[in-house]
Amino acid sequence: MLAPVLQVLQFALLIAGAVALLEGWLHYHFTRHEKAWFLPVGVLGTVTLVLAGAGALAGGSVEPARLLSLGLGTVAAECAVALFFKHVVRGRHSLPFMLLAPAALGLGLLIAYPLVFEVYLAFHDLKLTTIMAWSRTGELPFVGLKHFGKVFTSSPLSEVSFWQLLLRTVWWTFVNVFFHVAGGFVMALLLNSVTRFKGVYRMLLIVPWAMPQVVAVLAMRGEFHSQYGFVNVMLTKLASAAPFLGDLGVGPVQWLGQHPFLTCTIINVWLGIPFMAVVILGGLQSISRHYYDAASIDGASAFQQFRMITLPLIRPVLAPAVTLGTVWTFNNINVIYLVTGQAGGTEDADILVSALYKAAFAFYRYSYSAAFALIVFLLLFTFSMVWLKWSKGSESLYD
Question: pTM for this structure?
Fold first, then answer.
């Protein structure tokens, strides 16, 4: 039982040691840049740390040629950094840089390195037939843009093409974000008119979104069970209470078997409304009541006040929220995976990211999946830039 705890402690000590080395390295460069021995000692110390770290990670089995190339690269990099600190930084802004350094290191390890490695994989060929050679030599065959072309011409799955997945993902994103915004607006307007217990209502509203998504999705999945789920139980009772509804076809539905995509959409709409409602409510509460009072005096109706006051003034809040909601929904594999059991199961509910997951971890097409992921990123980046430009979401109200 103590083994997992010890592993966590070892990892924590490793992180603490890495942060301490980083802070010591920065402190040396900030405080010793005027010394005559600053450059040689910095180069010697940095090269020693890098080579020792490389040897520890490789278990002491690093080839001399690799050590030599790594050492020469470290010398060049440290010389450039040391000269930059000596002639440009000169000890200024040491505190903010040292405070930001651990976070920057974490982001570099968790985001920058995987992104660079993903780009490398996209232009090379890593799959089951080449992975053993890659593990021995560390080299992969270069294939250029081959995998980017295959993304558009070959199916990532067995039955659905890329273009079908793209259309389904666009529809999935549009429907979910539309109901997130519409439902969030309704809930925010209702809460904004409440005078008592507003904090309690807001707390209850945020529970579905604040709850861990795995728990929330699995709980909602159970409500769509064909026999014992709440939805089918209520449909059965409704058909029994009103027989004419049964004649119209109202009754239990095989949600997970026959309508997996619709089930995922309903669950994701329920999960996303609270976040959008809280964001919109914050925007509504920032609008001064004086605008509405002046509009009422001028005889403006409630709809005119909503169209001419609420919508324009809430735009700086709503546009970034819609952008975030679109990106999150486009990339939301959790709901699809957990509801349909995506261990290679049904493809009727797959969207781009769930197909990407299957291509990588069910069909082991690693380089193809890396190119696929970059294309998805470019799609989202392009949409975000166009949407923010069109909606003027990056501008303040008074620009």
Answer: 0.77
